[in-house]
Amino acid sequence: MKEINRRKFLKIGTLGATAISFGASFGGVIPIVGMRGRNVSMFTSKFRKGIPTICNLCPNRCGVIGFLRYEDLAAIQGNPHHINNQGKICARGIAGVNQVYDPDRLLHPLKRVGARGEGKWKKISWEQALTEISNRLQTINNENRNHEFVFHTDTQNYRGLARRFLNNFENATILNSSALNDLNKTTAQKSIWGEEREIIDAENCRYFLNFGSNPFESHSYFVSFNQRLAEARINNYAKLITMDPLLSNTAGKSDEWIPIKPGTDGIVALAMANVIVQKGLYDAEFISRWTNIPISQLKSHLSQYTIEKAAKISAIDAATIERIAIEFAANRPAVAFSGSGVAQHVNGFETERSIMLLNALVGNIDKKGGVCLARTYQLNDFSPIEINENEPSTVQFFERIKKEKQKVDLYFAYKNNPVYEYPDCNFTQQVMKDESLMPFTVVMDTVKSETAALADLILPAATFVESWDLDSTPSFEMVPFVSLAQPVIKPHGQALSLNDVFLKLSRRMGESISNSMNYESVEDFIKQSVAQIPGLSDEKQFNKLKKQGIWYDKNANPEYELYKKQRFATRSRKFEIAGSNGLPKYEPITEHINVSKNELFLISYSTNVMRQDLTNLKWLAEINHTNKALINAKTARRLRIAEGDYVMLESEIGKIVIKAHITQGIYPGAIAISKGLGHWEYGRIAQSKKFKSEDPDTEFIWWEKDGNGTNPNFVIPVSIDPSGKGQAWKDVKVKVNKVS
Predict the structure, then answer these.
(1) Closest Cα partner for 727 from 313, 261, 175?
(2) pLDDT tens for residues 655-704?
């Protein structure tokens, strides 16, 4: 047997824990290690046909291969040709098979026949559904009331023919649900260096300073980032420091976990910046040449943020803050990074700017092993959605409707579920039920969600293995690429992709709209879009893209410090430490000042397999189907709460009851509940209900007795960061009491 040294063994073990692709063992398929994306049926011992596509179950957009058993989808594995995820995918992607064959999947258009919320529906044809929608849209357009057409989706779905169709409705209300979690972060990033999100060249990094992110469990670039982070820990002996109120999987795998008081990351980052500047550990050339502020002014501003002041506010020892600041500056290339969590406070915008300041101080901007600009291909109809900073926040949409500050004629939600996902669920539900406020609602999804249950029309959506799409997600290899989503199987029932729906709608409307969508099919549109890239301009190259699932210039080498050629996409064309809000600053959170004995700060967090739109996937639900409230052991003793006790959490807007789990892995002043559970619609698996169906597994929902968990959004009010305009999910103060 060939020997494996300890270093290689650890590398295999670490990568296996963070980004896996063993899912082909499900569905009668055996993965063959080293066979470059091939697999074998355990029943016939023959290689299965595999078709590459893109997973869209999270923003990372991993390249995957769907393997067929005759005409059915047998399994999903990672595409080894894809340079971002490099053949690895997470459990969510593997469970995409469940989404296709969900017994509760929507397969036909449905029209409401009873009162809203009564649950009475009738099947209708696509012809009738599209006619009703197109007639309403045509009237809105003819009467110049486009702002009364509301389209609601997230960033990755606002693309292709959908984007082109919506461009015909100037001033239509576009709600970007991605802003629910990330707006403070993306707005801050955009203001400081013109990018909406940092891309970390992790495999070349030597020191990671992590403020509240959990890449080993949940991250916007989940698999692409975490596998490179894991490799850097082994290959570069990179150190990982995590500051987080919660002992996440990432915190548990770090060299140090530092439980920080929620909402105080900003002052810690600024105190560290002060140490770096006062000790002369900064990159003088980058600050003087590429930022918009002299070091003398920055030094004066930072002097107020002493390590002693930061220690008193954050509950982190002053010596620890100083030591980490010095380590960070000395061990370059080093990166300071965050996820969505630290930005989900009312001071989140300034916190994000403060963390990015640390990267600028050590000059590690767009350098090897640093925080880098996005390498992508700009494909006109597939470019990212632009967020208008002057418009009211997406999360405040239903408040504006209720206060009659905005009128709605047609509301169209695609794979969005605001009744469940938004803060203050009860309020959102009330608005959606009110026909005087929301006269005509269309929801398109794979399953009947809580929002779909209050719609007038429900449209069956195709899954990612049944659809066409094009993608150029930022490259972690620093070489831009284009990846292709193509149907692996035919859509089940009468399901359609969003692009197909908008193409069909355009043909029922006026010439100006139909002419802008003059394509024979979605595939024809994709082919013409790809042709914008010189290397993909002919039929032969497009067929190669279909076969590989990805295209990039194999002769291209990673190029760093792009800003020296193209400069930064800011007003000054520099890295703007001094922005329209002045210099980065710490803003205390008012809600955190006066706290009574039984009040704690609620942290809602994501787990490694669950999202609110994946709860009906049986493989994921079996792993994670219920949740508990995590309470620090010291706090639990003070409140006389024991393991398994039921506790009531009460905020200014509502109450929830949930079991307690006692742990040392949380900051004493906080209480934490995972997101994505507690559905009252979304299918029977999401509700942990045992039932008979064509899938025999549904009779073996062994976790029925555990319940389906609790949705914390019932006690989280709408609260907006005034600078970033994003929702402050993690500032809600709740009274916690034991109940019988």
Answers:
(1) 175
(2) 999 999 999 999 999 999 999 999 999 999 999 999 999 999 999 999 99
Give the CA count within 13 Å in the CB-facing half-sphere of 305: 30
345 plus 428 within the same structural domain:
no
Tell whether 471 is covered by a domain: no
Phi, psi of 371 (to 5 degrees): -90, 120
Residue 84 is encoded by which pair of tokens?
A: 């971002």
The tokens for 206 are: 């030597």
Q: What is the pLDDT of residue 24?
A: 35
Give the pLDDT score at 455: 98
C-alpha 122/C-alpha 153 separation (Å) is 25
Q: Is residue 572 part of a domain?
A: no
- The answer to whether residue 193 sits within a structural domain is no
Nearest-angstrom CA–CA distance, 413 and 182: 19
Same domain as 360, residue 306:
yes
* CB burial of residue 197 (10 Å; 0-12, 13-18, 19+): middle
Q: Are residues 240 and 330 in the same domain?
A: yes
Per the prediction, the chain carries an average pLDDT of: 91
Pairing of strands 410-414, 441-445: parallel
The structure tokens 């209720």 sit at 402
Do 166 and 553 contact (CB within 8 A), yes or no? no
Q: What is the number of other CB atoms lying within 10 angstroms of the CB of residue 704?
A: 15
Q: How far apart are CA 289 and CA 568, in angstroms?
A: 12
For the chain, the domain total comes to 4
Pick out the chain residues at pLDDT < 70.
Answer: 1-46, 384-393
Q: What percent of the chain has pLDDT over 90?
A: 81
- 471, 532 contact by CB (below 8 A): no
pTM score of the predicted model: 0.91
Copy the structure tokens of residue 293: 């502020």
Question: β-strand 207-211 against 239-243: which pairing, if any?
Answer: parallel
> What residue numbers bound the domain in which 268 lies?
198-372
Bond before 333 cis per omega within 30 degrees: yes
In sequence order, what are the residues at sequence separation of 6 or more whose Cβ sits closer than 8 angstroms to the Cβ of residue 42? 28, 29, 30
Give the angle subtended at the CA of 722 by the CAs of 717 and 727, to the nearest 5°. 35
pLDDT digits (tens, 9 = 90+) for 184-198: 999 999 999 999 889
- In this structure, are 322 and 210 located in the same domain? yes
